[in-house]
Recover the amino acids of this structure.
């Protein structure tokens, strides 16, 4: 069982930066692969980034490579998404998710736990 709470969303100008946090509570945080997804109004929920249990490996959607960095602090049970050079098309509600089993899935249906999301708005 895991509970996830996102924070750090807000309004930022295009080209700016923002860092999101996902605080996890529950047992065995270190056994979960952690994910960020995002969903804009009227669109599907899309994969953004994932990070392995020890933080050794990370994966990103092509449109954020070089701009976003996912990281985790297992001592604090927090997963981060550092976003730089933000674009208006990055505007979305960002969701933290977790998977306990070993997997390479990037599908929302593969997630075991979800946070409720935090809104990021990038203005032009």
């Amino acid at each position: 069982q895991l509970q996830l709470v996102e924070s750090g969303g807000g309004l930022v100008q295009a080209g700016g930066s923002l860092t999101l946090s996902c605080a996890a509570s529950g047992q065995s945080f270190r056994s979960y692969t952690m994910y960020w997804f995002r969903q804009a109004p009227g669109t599907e929920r899309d994969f953004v980034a994932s990070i392995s249990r020890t933080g050794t490996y990370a994966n990103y959607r092509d449109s954020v490579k070089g701009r976003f960095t996912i990281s985790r602090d297992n001592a604090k049970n927090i997963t981060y998404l550092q976003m730089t050079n933000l674009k208006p098309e990055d505007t979305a509600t960002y969701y933290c998710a977790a998977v306990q089993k070993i997997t390479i899935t990037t599908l929302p249906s593969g997630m075991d736990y979800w946070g409720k999301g935090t809104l990021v708005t990038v203005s032009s």
About this structure: DSSP finds no helices and eleven strands in the chain. The mean pLDDT is 96. The CA atoms of residues 11 and 121 lie 5 Å apart. The longest strand covers residues 18-26.
